[in-house]
Amino acid sequence: MVNILFDCPNTQDFAHELSRYFKKGDKVAVVAFSFYDDYVYDAASWERLFGEGGNCYVETIDGLAPFGIIPDDISFINYFTDTKESARRKVEEADVIYFTGGLPDRMMDRIREFELEDVLLKHDGVVMGYSAGAVIQLREYHLYPDGDYKDFGYYEGLPYLDGFGIEVHYEYKPEQDESIRRFLSERGLTTYVTHTRMGGIVVENGEIKIIGKVDVYNP
After folding, report:
1. What does DSSP assign to residue 138?
2. Which domains does the chain show, CATH number per domain?
3. CA 164, CA 187: separation in Å to the nearest integer?
4. Is the dihedral of CA 36, 41, 43, 48 positive or negative?
5. Farthest-apart Cα atoms in the chain, separation
């Protein structure tokens, strides 16, 4: 199994390092559940973001194109129009599971609502995601105070991975440094810190590979 955890969706910038994990014709299921409630609230607003021409649609298509994956092979799970059964079918038929960025805790809420945890965890191919879609791949992840979250906190993700932490969008902010120190102190686990839009990590059969600009902090 391969887990790809990136800071932002610009994976095309690292196509050379990532191309070995994909093949032409791969089917991709995009779990588009990380949206903000006040921005996406019905089928039309979802379509503006994830539908053809929408910002998240374009980022996803562009990020996968260098690997020979075409739009016809990419299925977005639509919170407003998919059923539990159709969402599950998209996951089951996929070679690659793709988690979008946004709010990871709300993404988990919607995954549970659609009863997708078990089928997602049965997937043994490639699982990839950026930002929220990166941290959600950990059994437990932490978030530092920012515009979306008032306080530092621990959250339950999907238990694909365990035994380390990841902090995304690092920009030398004091609250980020404090978050890293607190996680190291309280959890005692190595932390991978991805600089904004500059890389991520790949976990292949338990082995971690750093791609781009990622700092590593040990307890």
Report:
1. B
2. 2-217 (3.40.50.880)
3. 9
4. negative
5. 47
In the block, which residue shows the tokens 């990380």?
34
Helices (H), 65-163: 84-92, 104-113, 117-122, 132-135
Tell me the pLDDT tens digit for each residue of 7-66: 999 898 899 999 999 999 999 999 999 999 999 999 999 999 999 999 999 999 999 999
What is the distance between the alpha carbons of residues 132 and 149, in angstroms, rounded to a whole number? Answer: 13
CA distance 5 to 2: 10
Would the CA dihedral through 91, 96, 102, 106 be positive or negative? Answer: positive
- Rounded (5°) CA angle 136-104-200: 50
Amino acid code (one letter) for 28: V
* Measured distance CA(160)–CA(62) in Å, rounded: 26
- Between CA 127 and CA 133, with CA 177 as vertex, the angle to 5 degrees is 15
